[in-house]
């Protein structure tokens, strides 16, 4: 199906910052901050390399331009200590295979050994630095540590969208010390997530799900006066349903969020934004495999039972609400999709979103995983690589890693 894949042409420099194409990097040392925070199994084998793949356009561009390419990333939470299980060594091998060229590895991201390796690099060489978070100074955005990183390069490029909501030495500190630009992935993330919200083709529909209202409240508040429709599913829906006066049995509820939920529903009604909640649910008494399940209307969730997925009538309702959408943003699953018995609603919505003749944007790790498991990821216009960062952008907040880049004059 034809998709509106190129919104960048419609959006005039939404980023407002230098990009890698603005930098004269030929023959120069370029420090690329990537997000190689990949999942590893017990044998230190990478189980999903999509984060590495998504930065390849930036790395390949720098190689083709004849830069000396120095790449840095974090991996996991080593809490400021060098721990072998958080080493980036497995990424060296994968990067070598993906780039089809040798990748050098510096066993520490700063210091004489890294400096020495950099001094011997030739044009087009690639060097990966060991995990930035082996140094506690990284997360503290320490100035001296930022200077040690900056010493390695002439230019700085940030392509780590997934870490852009953190003000660390490698995302903010170093950007103040070198000419600093966005990589291609960073630019694309901003164009889609910010561009779609600021300049949507209408009707614009937001689908929100996941466990808690508190996790998505900022997004709802920011999108409330920008969207035409809001669809809420997942655990968070039941706080809204309870706030409307219905009994929800033992379903997930955040009592302290009920007033806020009511206010948001009022606000949406006043601004004529259509608001959709599940009209039926798949319920069970426990999450255990094989537990008895039933489908009931929202009005009829019995005591002792909890709603763990949206039901088939809700899928039809949401699907109809999405029929005329031209822009769809989706963040958060419709149910406990990790368990087969409660996964149908999420997968059905994934298929509806994928089939929509609309610009479709998916954000958040769970939703990304759900569209992959539903087998429709190729039909989604854009899947964000950043969980926290994409939520923060959708909340209308600035990301420190973007703000720190050099302004485009
Ligand atoms: P979040 O990180 O807030 O997007 O939440 C994602 C999690 O919400 C997933 O792990 C789901 O299992 C969970 N979830 C979705 N729907 C429900 C529900 N009805 N009850 C409890 N948990 C849910």
Question: In a few lines, what is going on in this structure?
Answer:
The chain is of the alpha/beta class. It has helices at 50-64, 89-99, 112-119, 136-139, 143-150, 169-173, 184-198, 213-223, 237-243, 258-270, 312-322, 344-355, 365-373, 388-394, 400-403; strands at 29-33, 68-72, 104-106, 126-129, 155-158, 180-182, 204-208, 229-232, 274-276, 280-284, 293-297, 306-310, 327-331, 359-363, 382-383. The protein has a 6-stranded parallel β-sheet with strand order 3-4-2-1-5-6, sandwiched between helices. The protein has a 6-stranded parallel β-sheet with strand order 9-8-7-13-14-15, sandwiched between helices. It has a 3-stranded antiparallel β-sheet with strand order 11-10-12.
Topology:
Layout: E1 29-33, H1 50-64, E2 68-72, H2 89-99, E3 104-106, H3 112-119, E4 126-129, H4 136-139, H5 143-150, E5 155-158, H6 169-173, E6 180-182, H7 184-198, E7 204-208, H8 213-223, E8 229-232, H9 237-243, H10 258-270, E9 274-276, E10 280-284, E11 293-297, E12 306-310, H11 312-322, E13 327-331, H12 344-355, E14 359-363, H13 365-373, E15 382-383, H14 388-394, H15 400-403
Parallel strand pairs: 1-2, 1-5, 2-4, 3-4, 5-6, 7-8, 7-13, 8-9, 13-14, 14-15
Antiparallel strand pairs: 10-11, 10-12
Helix pairs in contact: 1-2, 9-10, 11-12
This protein binds adenosine monophosphate.
Adenosine monophosphate (AMP) binds at residues 210-212, 215, 234-235, 252, 307-308, 332-333, 335-336, 338, 364, 366.
């Amino acid at each position: 199906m034809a998709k509106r894949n190129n919104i960048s042409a419609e959006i005039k420099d939404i980023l407002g910052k230098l990009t890698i194409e603005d930098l004269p990097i030929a023959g120069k040392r370029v420090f690329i901050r990537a997000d190689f925070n990949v999942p590893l199994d017990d044998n230190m084998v990478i189980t999903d390399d999509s984060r590495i793949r998504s930065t390849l356009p930036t790395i390949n561009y720098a190689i083709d331009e004849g830069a000396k390419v120095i790449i840095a990333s974090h991996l996991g939470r080593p809490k400021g200590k060098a721990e072998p299980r958080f080493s980036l060594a497995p990424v060296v091998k994968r990067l070598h295979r993906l780039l089809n060229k040798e990748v050098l590895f510096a066993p520490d991201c700063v210091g004489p050994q890294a400096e020495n390796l950099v001094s011997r690099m030739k044009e087009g060489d690639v060097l990966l630095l060991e995990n930035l978070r082996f140094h506690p100074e990284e997360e503290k955005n320490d100035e001296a540590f930022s200077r040690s990183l900056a010493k390695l390069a002439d230019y700085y490029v940030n392509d780590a969208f997934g870490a852009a909501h953190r003000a660390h030495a490698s995302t903010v500190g170093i950007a103040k010390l070198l000419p600093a630009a966005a990589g291609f992935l960073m630019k694309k993330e901003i164009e889609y997530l910010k561009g779609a919200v600021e300049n949507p083709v209408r009707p614009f529909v937001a689908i929100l799900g996941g466990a808690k209202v508190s996790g998505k409240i900022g997004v709802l508040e920011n999108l409330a006066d920008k969207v035409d429709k809001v669809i809420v599913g997942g655990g968070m829906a039941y706080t809204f349903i309870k706030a409307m006066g219905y009994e929800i049995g033992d379903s997930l509820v955040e009592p302290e969020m009920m007033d806020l939920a009511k206010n948001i529903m009022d606000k949406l009604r006043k601004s004529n934004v259509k608001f959709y909640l599940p009209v039926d649910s798949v319920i069970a008494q426990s999450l255990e495999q094989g537990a008895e399940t039933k489908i009931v209307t929202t009005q009829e969730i019995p005591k002792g039972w909890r709603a763990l997925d949206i039901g088939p009538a809700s899928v039809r309702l949401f699907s109809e609400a999405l029929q005329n959408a031209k822009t769809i943003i989706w963040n958060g699953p419709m149910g406990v999709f990790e368990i087969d018995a409660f996964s149908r609603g999420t997968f059905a919505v994934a298929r509806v979103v994928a089939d929509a003749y609309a610009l479709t944007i998916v954000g958040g790790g769970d939703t990304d995983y759900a569209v992959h498991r539903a087998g429709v990821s190729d039909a989604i216009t854009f899947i964000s690589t950043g969980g926290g960062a994409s939520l923060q952008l959708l909340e209308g907040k600035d990301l420190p890693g973007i703000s720190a880049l050099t302004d485009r004059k």
